[in-house]
Write a structure and sequence with these properties.
The structure is a homodimer. Chain A is of the alpha/beta class and about 475 residues long. In chain A, about 35% of the residues lie in helices and about 20% in strands. Chain A has 14 helices and 20 strands. In chain A, helix 12 packs across helix 14. Chains A and B meet through strand 9, strand 10, helix 7, helix 10 and strand 11 of A and strand 9, strand 10, helix 7, helix 10 and strand 11 of B. Chains A, B: Keywords: Hydrolase, Metal-binding, Protease.
């Protein structure tokens, strides 16, 4: 592997190796404390722990920020450097059901994963504590090697990413936080970007998202029952559950794939450059592997792999996450439920906005006679986009290329993260993700992050740490040369 | 209160009073053993207990019958009488959630209920163990008073009533059971028929029912995912949850109230006599009380009280009991579920049949392009009807009138019970419900059955027992006189 301008890189790498066990143990301890906003679990403890990790890694000022929701963390590391870099963290994780896991999700055991090596398995391992711990370990290692930090850092960490970041603006746009970030060249989030074959995709943005519940309720409707009644009464009593079905039916096309909400904002078409990026990426990725891993025999409309990916990048979505109404246990129960709920997420692409999408949905329901159906938005945000020419992105490409990786550019993640708060006014900064290493199972059982790789092109934990070391020096202006070290 | 021809009625009544505490304790013990078919709970124990209760009450032959599902019980009491009467029991009860109860549902505590008196509160108290225990107590009391049983009895008890009696024919139509029942003048089920004001309705039939799940599943569909995947993939992956919504949408009218299944069997219109029965009953019942107790501000289509009741009696229904798909916990979870389920019940009126309704539903789904959606029928049966002139019914009317109650006749219960197995060929017997006494909360929390009544027109447990004593003597041919005893 080829590295360039990081000064005394070998000394830092030695500190990373020396710190390996300590860092893995720290990651295990962190996974053992799951903060889950959706379940109101461990928010205060999670923020305290996040603050402690930041202090220990060298941030001189660390503050827990009241957001009205789960607390955030704001921290600065002043290295007296000319360049300042923003870092976005989440300390919360997704819900989990231990019964579905092959290894206890809070024990973060090291287990062998064939073809990859030794992984740490636990909730949050890759989304996002593993990569985040690797980045903090980079700061420790630079200090332990008695090197000067090449950039100043501004860290913002939230505890509500997994519920759609409902209060991210209260954290990021607080005047002093905003002022600190405004000095930065952009904001990045640590992430293990390597595919199982070592390839890396650099994302230039992400879709926006809105999470919401549609609730049909007898009381709000003024028809049907205000409590569950015997199902035989259906002959004389209206049904909120049927009302929900009828309202849902109006939201999408017959095949369920196109949003049919009246006046819903329209997406901008892909540019030629975006199409070219997709074509290049798709050529490098195996369709059969993707279909098999998802258990999907056909894409929507039997689209080709490239067409399906163009749709993935370019189209907004209206998805049912869950349906909950009435009796949900085993077998049946003869009730007419008074209430039924659809859990929905919408994904948005520029120039659509969260508020525009929600307003259109509400107006549509009202116009179609379903004004009584509650639209309870629990979180969400606008899409985000960053220019490929930004230094934040160009530094990623440079570090990857010096690692022997020719990154693929990807126009827009289909998943979402609240990058909008950085890329939109008032901050208007570049934003992205970075990091070597590999993980899987985000939002699913057996989530993992690779610790010791058996694949020569895929970095384990220490390699991920070094990717952050190199990135920081690159961002600080020390990179770009050609002095190579294997 | 006026009673007639029951010989030595006072002696029997004395035995009922003497047995009161024993009988109530026996009911409490029975409630403490809930058999719940939907949860696969206590079927074998429930059948054993049912058999024990029958033996103790004087049935000479008692047999547990393998039905392929939960076991049934077949018992005969040969009194050497010219008349034989069939009795239908269920020993299973509905599911319950103790958190929703004001008194532990298996403890069957005696609690005061204002306006009614002392009630026994527990799962199964009124549906159906309370009335069933009262009937068994009548048999004990006749024996304890050294009286001759006026009729022979044939008892069939099932453990799957609450899941739609999927194996009732395997019990009732087994050749020897069928032969025993064939000798009877009809079959009745013990039931506390009194309203809180003492009024009694004699039902001449019941709707049929089908309970089923409609399941949309990626694997069966051959589209969408075969496991839950990240919701961002909605842009390129079909959604079984949306497919379920679209299929459901085709099943009912826009208001959710009329079945729109192509070729669905049609109900027979009400006869003039049935309309008259409804009009008489409706005049005697208070609409405001009914609407308040159900929490229903308007009936379907703003129908009048009488029109709503005509609809209740005459119209088939398609009801959503529950919707379950994907993530059903608190908040949201960004998944695209691979599977979604609607729990449905359909209620049927003559001449519709269970098989006809299921076939039409399946054909409709196939015709509309939803042939992949599974129709998993878990139970159900045809509607049932009995002629008002049958001795089984006329004896009820006679006993009620001698109790000072002018019963209202009701064409058809909107709820369901598997009377079809008795009223249709090969048995073609009258079937119905009978019993004084009062209960409430069937299928709901705080289910109860009245034990000690404070209302002069409503019978407590001992009065319910005596109503069965009188009914048996009436059926045996001893009734009908006018010798009155207060």
């Amino acid at each position: 592997m080829v590295f360039a301008q990081t000064p005394d890189r070998a000394a830092i790498q030695a500190q990373v190796a020396k710190r390996h066990d300590t860092a893995v143990k720290a990651l295990q301890d962190w996974i053992a404390l799951p903060s889950i906003a959706a379940e109101d679990r461990n928010a205060a403890q999670g923020a305290e722990y996040m603050a402690k990790l930041a202090r220990e890694a060298g941030f001189q000022k660390v503050e827990i920020v009241d957001t009205g929701g789960k607390p955030g963390v704001f921290a600065t590391l002043d290295a007296g450097a000319p360049t300042t870099v923003g870092v976005y963290y989440m300390y919360d994780v997704k819900q989990f059901d231990p019964a579905e896991w092959s290894s206890p999700p809070l024990e973060a055991r090291l287990v062998d994963r064939p073809g990859l090596g030794k992984v740490i398995m636990g909730r949050g391992a890759t989304n996002q504590k593993g990569p985040e711990m690797a980045f903090l370990t980079a700061l420790h290692a630079i200090r332990d090697a008695k090197q000067k930090m090449p950039v100043n850092l501004v860290l913002v960490a939230e505890g509500e990413e997994e519920i759609g970041s409902p209060n991210i603006e209260k954290l990021v746009l607080r005047p002093d936080v905003q002022a600190a970030l405004k000095k930065s060249i952009g904001v990045f989030m640590p992430m293990g970007l390597q595919d199982p074959d070592g390839a890396v995709t650099v994302n230039l943005g992400a879709k926006g998202v809105v999470e919401l519940e549609l609730v049909a309720d007898g009381k709000a409707w003024g028809r049907g029952p205000s409590k569950d009644v015997h199902s035989s009464l259906k002959a004389m009593v209206d049904s909120p559950a049927w009302r929900l079905v009828k309202a849902l039916d109006t939201l999408v096309s017959e095949d369920g794939n196109t949003i049919a909400v009246d006046g819903f904002p329209k997406p901008a078409p892909l540019t030629a450059e975006q199409r070219a990026q997709i074509a290049r990426s798709v050529a490098a990725r195996d369709e059969a592997t993707a279909r098999k891993s998802l258990g999907v025999p056909h894409w929507i409309d039997d689209l080709s792999w490239e067409q399906a990916n163009e749709r993935l990048v370019s189209q907004p979505t209206m998805n049912i996450q869950g349906l909950v109404g009435g009796y949900t246990g085993p077998g049946g129960k003869t009730i007419l439920p008074h209430r039924a709920v659809a859990k929905i997420d919408m994904r948005l692409v520029p120039p659509m906005t969260r508020d525009g999408a929600v307003q259109a949905l509400k107006a549509h329901l009202k116009q179609r006679g379903y004004g009584d159906i509650a639209v309870n938005v629990s979180g969400g945000y606008d899409p985000t986009a960053t220019d490929a020419n930004a230094k934040l992105i160009q530094a990623q490409i440079a570090v990857l290329q010096r690692n022997g990786i020719e990154p693929l550019l990807w126009p827009r993640l289909a998943g979402s993260y609240p990058g909008f708060v950085f890329t939109q006014p008032p901050l208007s900064l570049p934003a992205g993700h970075f990091g070597l290493g590999h993980g899987g199972g985000a939002h699913a059982p057996d989530e993992f992050f690779l610790i010791e790789s058996t694949h020569p092109k895929v970095q384990g934990f220490d390699g991920a740490v070094m990717s952050y070391v190199d990135y920081l020096y690159e961002l600080g202006g020390s990179g770009g040369g050609s002095t190579a070290a294997k």
